[in-house]
TrEMBL record, chain A:
GO terms for molecular function: carboxylate reductase activity. Coiled coil: none annotated. Residues 1-223 form the FAD-binding PCMH-type domain. Its EC number is 1.2.99.6. Keywords: FAD, Flavoprotein, Oxidoreductase. Pfam families: CO_deh_flav_C, FAD_binding_5. The gene is paoB_1. Gene3D superfamilies: 3.30.465.10, CO dehydrogenase flavoprotein, C-terminal domain, Uridine Diphospho-n-acetylenolpyruvylglucosamine Reductase, domain 2. InterPro entries: CO_DH_flav_C, CO_DH_flav_C_dom_sf, Diverse_Substr_Oxidored, FAD-bd_PCMH, FAD-bd_PCMH-like_sf, FAD-bd_PCMH_sub1, FAD-bd_PCMH_sub2, Mopterin_DH_FAD-bd. It comes from Dyadobacter linearis. This is Aldehyde oxidoreductase FAD-binding subunit PaoB.
UniProtKB/TrEMBL annotation, chain B:
This is Aldehyde oxidoreductase iron-sulfur-binding subunit PaoA. CDD domains: fer2. Keywords: Iron, Metal-binding, Oxidoreductase. Pfam families: Fer2, Fer2_2. GO terms for molecular function: carboxylate reductase activity. Signal peptide: none annotated. It comes from the Bacteria. It is an enzyme of class 1 (oxidoreductase). Its EC number is 1.2.99.6. PANTHER family: OXIDOREDUCTASE WITH IRON-SULFUR SUBUNIT, OXIDOREDUCTASE, IRON-SULPHUR BINDING SUBUNIT-RELATED-RELATED. The gene is paoA_1. The lineage of its organism: Bacteria, Pseudomonadati, Bacteroidota, Cytophagia, Cytophagales. Residues 15-91 form the 2Fe-2S ferredoxin-type domain.
Amino acid sequence: MNNFTYKRAESIEDALAQNNSGGNSSYLAGGTNLVDLMKYDLTRPDSLVDLNRVDGHHEIYETPEGGLLLGAFVTNADTAWHPIVEERYPLLSKAILAGASAQIRNMATNGGNLLQRTRCYYFYDANVPCNKREPGSGCSAIPGYNRIMAILGTSESCIAVFPSDMCVGLAALDATVHVEGPTGSRSIPFADFHRLPGDTPEIDNTLLPGEIITGIELPANGFSKNYSYLKLRDRNSYAFALVSVATGLELDGNVIREARIALGGVAHKPWRVREAEEFLAGKTADAASFGQAAEIILRGAVGFPHNAFKIELAKRAIVRNCMMALDPESQLPGAQPSV
Amino acid sequence: MLTELTEPTTLKASQPVNLVVNGTPLQLNLLPWVSLLDALRDYSGLTGTKKGCDHGQCGACTVICDGKRVLSCLSLAVSKDGSEITTIEGIAPEGDLHPLQKAFIEHDAFQCGYCTPGQICSAIGMMKEGKAKTRAEVKELMSGNLCRCGANTNIIDAIMEVQNQSVHE
């Protein structure tokens, strides 16, 4: 790890001012990704501004609009096990609990979860080219071993995937990200927060330099009656997704009124296709309808030599997870298949 | 690439870090890049907490920080200033064993023992969280602690026994 100075911010304003004092500064929250990247010498900040003790943004509370505001500095564990999240947004709770380990979830914050870097092994290997780590150096994953890489929204520059489970849930729930920065505060719809790699894969999201996530707002509807999160991976727990699916359904009997489906492990951002959700509205909630929606969602998917299996896997995972959403009571711990 | 260490920078960067470790106040003076794990092992003489991967993947460094199980390897000690830490050395009075330690012995829940301090601190944190009731849930919530000797089945047996005892108490 490189040498750096450490400053503790008292407030968001203080953090913005300290960050603004020049140089290459990073904000520190839970540290579960940043400190690791620093240990690998992949991120080398001159200074860290510690946000853990800023006043505010450490709570979860219901908004006047009927939604829920998740403070940026609440831990992933406290969020997943918050009584209101468990009751009204169980899809989010399940998605969070499918990620990382209990210890990491006790440290990692909600804001930090959105800002995770990819776990592409070539990004982590400083000895090989990587456009995300070193723009213009090339992509080692395309000609390399690409089992964990993306099948949707890839570019010639980068086929890395965004690793978060929580964010797959947030995408399905249509969350909004609240940020404060040097030029003021703004809100970013979740779908616009993360970006596709294009020819600038070094940029993961639309956060501007110096901006701090202060909260994540959930709209009123949490799809708490019919929901499911399915995570398929190389071991049953504590591994990143090969494919994950978040589903929320609103049903009238066995007819779908509204559907939300988001995928993880397949792209540079959580993947959601509105056309598929619109297709499902008014259809019977059965494997045939979900299968047709899966075809729409995977339209345009391109596999690489070691991950082409993900295309079929994702389609089947969508169908299975939507069927699981019909019976949330029978779901198993760890976002494992229950049907 | 090797990091260049220059003495004036390091001297300037040291800062006071106050921790309460196993009930004892510790006043340390640390560089900001010292992890909580290194602060315990190298600066406090508490080597019960183990360094496995040092990257948050194995759970060997698990300690209880302000009541919650965390990975000390990914925690910067300066950021934990003022925190109360419990390590494996502090889970039971001197000369006594914690129920989990007894259960680990009874169930042969280790071979080399390297992951054991982390396993036990993690299990204490898990039981305090109160979210794991069934064996499947315990397995899921203990998945952040790897045992390369493969004692996992016995580890879960030991934890289940202590958990069932405390439920019945």
